[in-house]
Amino acid sequence: MAKSILLELLEARNYKELKRLMGEYNPVDLAELLMELNDRDLAIVFRMIEKDKAAEVFSYMDDDQRQTLLDCFTSQEIKHILDSMYTDDAVDLLEDMPANVVNKLLDQVSKDTRADINRLLNYPEDSAGSIMTVEYVDLSPDMTVRQALQKIRTIGIHSETVYTCYVIVQRKLVGIITAQALMTNDEDVQVKDLMEENFIFIRTTDDREDAAKLFRRYGLIAIPVLDKEGFIVGIVTFDDAIGVLTEETTEDIHKMAAISSSEESYLKTSVFQHAKNRIPWLLILMFSATITGAIITKYENAFQVVPILVSFIPMLMDTGGNCGSQSSTLVIRGLAVDELHFSDFFSIVWKEFRVSLIVGIVLAAVNGVRIYLVYGGDVQLAMVVAASLIGTIVVAKMVGCMLPIFAKQLHLDPAIMASPLITTIVDTCSIMIYFRIATLVFRL
């Protein structure tokens, strides 16, 4: 609906009404609306957005759109956009650009903005320093509430958040104070009497995912970032934390499905790239499955004596894979949200072992009765399949819960030990258990 109206106004060259329409949208919705336009119309409409809002809209657009606009912008327009963007958003933009384009863009911005951006670009990609912003409200402990509120009114428009302010002495962070505390106390009270000296902080070199998790744990809006000397160099805000957790979750989902991660969206990733991301893991899993084939070949004689044994192989392998996936999913999720740790290893294994026994006995009993009724009261066959099912489920759940924990302890991504890999391991184990029990019972 909005797109059709926008296109009608463009076609009629009713730019006055178009500009008014742009003013009614918030930056997020406006960026989404502009995604529907072609390159020519995109540049026309973007120039009609109010200058104060344009930089924020620009930060929400995708890389292709931003590149299109940068190609159309004059040097003065580029300077205004980058100078108006929050530093962390500007860094996110430049990180996705080629080096020669970055240098060209940095030449357009002010000296202070360029210094801030260059400093953030030098932090490791996965560090807290790379996602922080340097726009925050700093206060002196000797200020009164009246003076603090006046400073917020003066510089708050250029700060990413004013809800949390930072009390600094000679660049050292000595406390934090909320806007709520300032607005609910007398104007003559000093900041040092209201500030909180016991505060959460992170280091510039801390892993950005660990930093993002602190927001969920403590319910924070922003976290100060300190360097190794203890000087405050910036803050990380909750919107950046959400972005980090979204990226990490996407990467984990890709790994759990045995797909190499990609930063591009699904539709913008080429068919060739999709195939390239999937083939390596599929090759590894395909060749690892040959182990299962070798084991089955070893028991070829058993098939000839009791052919019916073959028909239960898919059921055992699928059940084992499903059980392993259940355990691994729960453990990976627990590790991801800091609910589980390596110190909980034995508690996790003991719990999953008991769960596996209950699940195994129930499924074995149901399947044993089914086999007994369907296959003419063959007690031996029912016992073999039931016992194999219990053994397979126990092994599957042990493997499913242990591998992600070991991966985490070895500083690997636990998501690597997800469904495809666990299923391959469990398939091999289930075949070995099944035919070992069958050979003992049927004396093959």
TrEMBL record:
GO terms for molecular function: magnesium ion transmembrane transporter activity; metal ion binding. The keyword Acetylation does not apply. It is found in: Cell membrane; Membrane. Its main location: membrane. It is a multi-pass membrane protein. CDD domains: CBS_pair_Mg_transporter. It comes from the Bacteria. One of its GO terms (cellular component) is plasma membrane. The chain crosses the membrane at residues 355-375, 381-403, 415-437. Homodimer. Belongs to the SLC41A transporter family. Acts as a magnesium transporter. This is Magnesium transporter MgtE.
